[in-house]
Design a protein that fits this description.
This protein folds into two domains: 45 residues, no CATH class; 238 residues, no CATH class. The protein contains eleven helices and no strands. The N and C termini lie far apart (87 Å).
Length: 333
């Protein structure tokens, strides 16, 4: 015992000995250095998961480089998807008005301005009209793809461009080439199906929720253009060939559109398929309504000026866009 205090048992002094200090266990700190960065990245990744309602694998969470790439990819996809509007009742109303404007506007250029239905017709009016509206369509699509966010007027300008080029192209195939309504509708139906199949084969889906890259946007707009052209041919075929008149044809396509809406809400049929079915059906509905407005009384129309009808429709569409601001789709269509 005395040795502990510096004395040995014989009375001599010994070197003082100190008591060993108790060892302290070091705690792992998340409050400095790389651990803090990793912890902050983990919190950020969790917030992204909750915001997007998605799951991220553990390697992405613990790897800052992968997490950064994921964040950039997510931001890019969100911007691209947000360039299309939410599908609401106002969306479908504007869509029908836009297709009607496509009918009256296309007829105003090819029939009234280029005189395709007059005695001085040269047989090239529909082709020239298709070329004019085709250039507008290509420019509008390029602007839409290049845009970084959703612009309502740009989007609906592109839609109207597809309806006008669809009107003149269908008239050129049916009348100038002599294919007829039945043959033209059949060819255009094959083109629409082929476009959707190539889209599906190339990207794995035809859902508009996948419109997140320029490549898919090209498929999106080409399919819309073919569907608008098919709708024009279908409208003319039902109204003229089947002798139902414009009001009768409008009733048929309106009923089919209502049936599609009921199938969308009350069945498990693919929403992507039903969306494209509705998109196609709005075109012939707008086509027969447009013909009802500007065709002569002898043909069952109201004989309104094509220019007047087109300007009136353009004003109504613009007013609806301004009165009912459309939000970009958080989940496209």
């Amino acid at each position: 015992m005395s040795a502990i205090w510096g004395f040995d048992a014989t009375g001599g002094s010994a070197a003082p000995r100190t008591m060993p200090k108790p060892t302290r266990r070091r705690r792992h700190s998340f409050n400095r250095g790389p651990d803090l960065v990793r912890r902050q990245l983990f919190v950020l990744a969790t917030a992204i998961c909750l915001r997007l309602q998605c799951s991220i694998s553990l390697p992405v969470l613990i790897n800052p480089i992968r997490l950064s790439r994921f964040a950039r990819m997510t931001s890019k996809n969100s911007e691209l998807v947000a360039k299309v509007p939410q599908v609401t009742l106002v969306f479908w109303i504007i869509k029908i008005l836009a297709t009607t404007l496509g009918e009256t506007g296309g007829d105003a250029v090819t029939m009234s301005w280029l005189g395709e239905t007059t005695d001085e017709a040269k047989g090239t009016g529909y082709l020239i009209g298709t070329a004019i509206f085709g250039v507008i369509f290509v420019v509008a699509v390029l602007l839409q793809i290049k845009a970084k966010k959703f612009h309502p007027f740009l989007y609906w300008l592109t839609i109207v461009a597809t309806t006008t080029v669809g009107t003149t192209l269908a008239d050129y195939c049916d009348r100038s080439l002599g294919i007829g309504y039945t043959g033209g509708s059949s060819i255009l139906f094959v083109l629409v199906v082929a476009s959707l199949l190539i889209w599906r084969w190339s990207t794995g889906s035809i859902s508009v929720e996948t419109v997140a890259t320029p490549k898919v946007e090209v498929f999106y707009w080409v399919t819309i253009m073919f569907s608008q052209t098919l709708g024009t041919a279908l409208g003319d075929w039902v109204a003229d060939t089947k002798d139902m008149g414009y009001l009768g044809a409008a009733g048929i396509f309106g009923s089919l559109l209502l049936l599609t809406a009921l199938l969308y809400y009350f069945t498990s049929i693919s929403h992507a398929v039903l969306f494209w079915a509705a998109f196609i059906l709005t075109r012939p509905l707008g086509a027969v309504v447009g013909d009802l407005l500007d065709k002569p009384h002898a043909e069952g129309g109201l004989a309104l000026s094509r220019y007047t009808a087109s300007i009136a429709l353009l004003v109504v569409i613009g007013a609806l866009i301004l009165i009912f601001p459309q939000k970009p789709a958080s989940k496209a269509h």
